[in-house]
Amino acid sequence: MPSKAISAGDDPGTIAVIGAGSVGATIAYAVMLRGVATQIVLVDLNQAKAEGEAKDLEHGRRFVPSVRIRAGGLEACAGSQIIVITAGAKQHPGQSRLELALVNVEMFRDMIPKLAEIAPDAILLVVSNPVDVLTCAATRWHPHGDRRVFGSGTVLDSSRFTSLIAERIGVSVANVHAHIVGEHGESELPLWSSAHVGNISLSHFKVPGGKGLTRADRDEIITKVRSAAAEIIAAKGATNWAIGLAAARILEAIRRDENAVLTVSRVLHDYNGISDVALSVPCLVNAHGVGEPLDIRLSSDELEGLTHSASVLQNACRAAGL
Ligand SMILES: NC(=O)c1ccc[n+]([C@@H]2O[C@H](COP(=O)([O-])OP(=O)(O)OC[C@H]3O[C@@H](n4cnc5c(N)ncnc54)[C@H](O)[C@@H]3O)[C@@H](O)[C@H]2O)c1
Fold this sequence. Notes:
alpha/beta; six-stranded parallel sheet; three-stranded antiparallel sheet; 9 helices; about 40% helix; globular; binds nicotinamide-adenine-dinucleotide
């Protein structure tokens, strides 16, 4: 029997997740494990699916920090501090993220104004793809979009990037600080010039007796980062685990008001000459949402790559009617 619609009420630790598919359910699971929310609300067009996932997660409450999990309709997002959107069509093998744009933009056109009315103070974290195009759409259709709406962007890609660098040079991934910026997709680019390992510039770093990264290593790493999602989708139909953890990390930065530096996607205003398009650059994330992007030094190649990525996304937005 479908449960009656519930509202997040006044619980300040409520995170609503719209879309209880593989990504939404995994984000809820990661949020539970990390103790990021006191209440999680799952919303899906397929109400039975949302209820099934909520029940399954709820049965694990004994083993994680205190949390309640509920399913409900869109109105159940009322009172949420954060709403994560994972709803919509997903990539099929061989399909690019940008090909999803038309379908998911139309879904956002209907959903975002409703969410702004139901939960006017909530921060909206966009995860559905193409995340940059949808972040642009949601920012435009939300009255406080500029500050409260942002996308998971290249937080996941930066994790893939640092993990591959760490593996190649033989250090802990926790000591590698390096960003992937631009589109969450084909035109994304690595910022090699600012990459550091344990406070040492990556270009000078090598473990004793080891070797630093060669040009060929770098090329191979970025190729692997760019093709990671397609490879996993070809193998198992979807990606969910790492995006679940990446989204939980972003949510933690909001909930704990961390001012964490994360490569989230937001609409830029004259950032290195780029305006009116959402893409990922390092930004501060805190309880108010997303701050202005950080001013990072880019090499001329990196600036050219970022400008190219912005123009790819501007074209995608235009093609999607934005
Ligand atoms: N940003 C990232 O890094 C990243 C990573 C992986 C996947 N994704 C994206 O996340 C999205 C979800 O992927 P998935 O694998 O979970 O897909 P999925 O098909 O498993 O789940 C999507 C869910 O959305 C629901 N849905 C569709 N329209 C809805 C609506 N209007 N309201 C409420 N629910 C609705 C569907 O019923 C389904 O349960 C896709 O767009 C995918 O490309 C993004």
